[in-house]
Amino acid sequence: MASPVELARHVAGFDSDGVRHMQRLFRTWSLIADLALADVLLLAPVASPNVDSDDPPFIVLANVRPSTSPTLYTHDPIGDRHRPDNRPLVADAWRNEELVQGRVAFGPHFPEGEADILAAPFWFEGHKLGVVLRERKVTQRQQIQLETTYNALADRLLQMVSDGIFPFVGSGDPQYGAPRVGDGVLVLDADRRVTFQSPNAVSALHRLGIHRSPAGQRLADIGLDDSFVRSAFALCKGVTQELERGDEVTVTSRCIPLLEKGVVDGAFVLVRDISELKRRDRLLLSKDATIREIHHRVKNNLQTISSLLRLQARRVESEEGRAALDESVRRIAAIAIVHETLANDAAEDASGDDAPFLDVAKPLVRMIEEGLGSRDDPIRFEITGDAGRLPLIRSIPLAVVLTELIQNVVDHAFPDHVHPDGGRRVRVDFDTDDHELRVSVSDNGQGPPEGFDFAEARGLGLTLVNTFVTTELSGSITMTDGDGTDELPGTTTQLSFPRTWEDRVVGPALD
How many Cβ atoms sit within 10 Å of the Cβ of residue 416? Predict the structure, then answer.
């Protein structure tokens, strides 16, 4: 099934501005559905050279069901097409460019009875886009005051839709915890005085420590900051504000002004107690800070261990012993860089357990580069591609593997007699998709020894590489002559592995 945006563009002929305004309606029209206790649909005429432009069929672009009452639609009406005689109120609202109301008998998809329908032409900057349709079942039950108040507010919003005023353009929406009709409603008159309060709104005010009845008073008179209400009246747009009482209670409030002929003659305020959401948010921030502090302390502890090993290396007389300790220091430093990156990662979606691996690879390469003794014949390092974000369980073994591979190139690819044209070069390439990461280390050195088999390597460094890749990373590794071009004709080591533990290839289950 096509999405509402695809239907709007390719069937109804919406341009980019029209699509954006339609999406603006989608962010706010649950208000109409909840207040009207009804289903709300957006229909638009089909735009096609084969369709009569004076009497086109209509297509349902989207719908929203109410959260305050049962829906009439047990099926998904998106994409349904209707002839004008099948939806006469929609056709009348479209042709006459005004609000149309009436009752119709239910069609074959609905139970017996009648539907109370209100159709409002949907405008954007003087151009008709479609028709917003409100549908609810007619009942003989007498409505209570809350329901009649809600219905009146919904009718006002639909009138504003017909006037091309609603949804508001440039009205900021709350980031999270947006209040809905069921959370609590306060209705204000043109003088910003409360004329109606729902029971849930009264409860929210009580949470803020306000026990006086707001009826007939402005919010400022009962001890609330009503600057957001005054802003909504002045700007003729919806305005949201969070009201707090200490660290324990937070109520978010959104004022929706009601306009007639461009003049605000009232408003309603949605209020929601988001204290629990805020508490969870603070807990998450505290947890995130704790995780980052742990990474920072692990990094410090690893650096302390490295310092102790360096001190020990200075007291070791054996050249082989000092080299072994230096290699251990380098491996520990690679792990410390991972923890430092996780501690410092400031991405908004960072979880404290993953980080961009390029932020690990770059300092790793610098560390090896700075450890080289020769300044007369330096090795030029290059990193290409992007590894994306990797979890800790992938970052640490990959950091150790990458360190060993680069150090192996430094130690063995460029003996004294090898001086390639253009200087000594090492390139690290990253290539990734949603499930797999591929890494290659290439050089323009002398290439691997004849008959070399990576799987049979007995050196500690390559043994670690082989073990980490095949076990910790669940991947594979190969070593070949050159990178497939004349640019780096030495050795290319390629490894690939699943990005996450869940992406690994799992064999058949054992009985």
Answer: 6
Average pLDDT across the chain, whole number: 84
364: amino acid identity, one letter: L
3-state helix, strand, coil in the chain (%, to 5): 40, 25, 35
**pTM score > 0.85 for this model?**
no
Interaxial angle between packed helices 392-412 and 319-344, expressed in degrees from 0 to 180 and rounded to the nearest 10: 140
pLDDT of residue 8: 93
User: Is the residue at 176 inside a domain?
Assistant: no
Residue 392 in any domain: the answer is: yes
Instruction: Report the relative pairing of strands 491-498 and 239-245 from DSSP bridges.
Output: unpaired
Q: Give the whole-angstrom CA distance, residue 299 versus residue 287.
A: 19
Tell whether the model's pLDDT for residue 350 goes beyond 80.
no
CA–CA dist 72, 491 (Å, integer): 68
Do 247 and 280 have their domain in common?
Answer: no
Tell me: do 211 and 107 sit in the same domain. no
CB 62 within 8 A of CB 42: yes
d(Cα 474, Cα 212) in Å, to the nearest integer? Answer: 65
| More confident position, 51 or 126 | 126
Dist CA 204 CA 85 (whole Å): 47
DSSP, res 215: B
| CA dist., res. 27 & res. 33, Å (int) | 12
Contacts (Cβ under 8 Å, ≥6 apart) of 490 = 413, 420, 442, 443, 444, 445, 446, 447, 481, 482
Asked whether residue 149 falls in the same domain as residue 9, the answer is yes
331, 348, 365 - which closes a domain: 348
Q: Are residues 54 and 152 in the same domain?
A: yes
Reported as a pLDDT band with limits 50, 70 and 90, residue 172 is low
Can you read off the two tokens belonging to residue 163? Answer: 């006037």
Query: Which band of pLDDT confidence, cut at 50, 70 and 90, is reported for residue 446?
Result: confident
Range in 289-293, 325-329, 506-510 with the lowest mean pLDDT: 506-510
Whether residues 210 and 334 share a domain: the answer is: no
Whether residue 168 is contained in a domain is answered as no
Number of domains in the chain: 4
Domain housing 435:
353-511
Using CA atoms, how far residue 131 sits from 74, 87, 116, 260, 456, in Å, is 22, 11, 16, 20, 73
Query: Cα–Cα distances in Å, from 408 out to 55, 73, 345, 465?
Result: 76, 67, 29, 11
Last residue of one domain, picked from the residues 307, 323, 348: 348
Model pLDDT for residues 464-507, shown as the tens digit of each residue: 888 888 888 889 998 888 766 778 888 899 999 987 655 444 43
| Buried b or exposed e, range 167-197, using 16+ CB within 10 angstroms | bbeebeebeebbbebebbbbbbeeebbbebb
